[in-house]
Design brief:
131 residues; mainly alpha; 61% helix
Amino acid sequence: MNEIVPKKDIPESVHSSYDEDLDLIRSTLRSLLLSGEEGLRMAQDLAEESEHPRAIEVLTGMIKQQADNAHALLSMHKTNQEINVTQTKGNTGNDTRSRTQNNVFVGSTAELQKMLAGQSEVIEHDDDRTD
């Protein structure tokens, strides 16, 4: 499986060409969407006036193409975000850090105060005990 490399680890020469390509793709998709809207309006007017099956078929094809172009633009942004993400596991992806939430202390107040003060003893857990 391909590993996503954070942007900061990519050489600077690749940054500029990647950013240029990204800008070109974005501007191309945006211009296709904008010009497609105008063509879509014209095709819709023609289909309404003529009520010809072929004109309606062309209109539905254009609508699908516009939806595909919009999806491609969103996909491009999502891919860009995935590439630029700084991974929480570190740069190598091999670091297995975990975060513990909602810890519960079971013991007396005196034991808690000793533990917080750094004076606590390690208490082993017995798995043989049944309740």
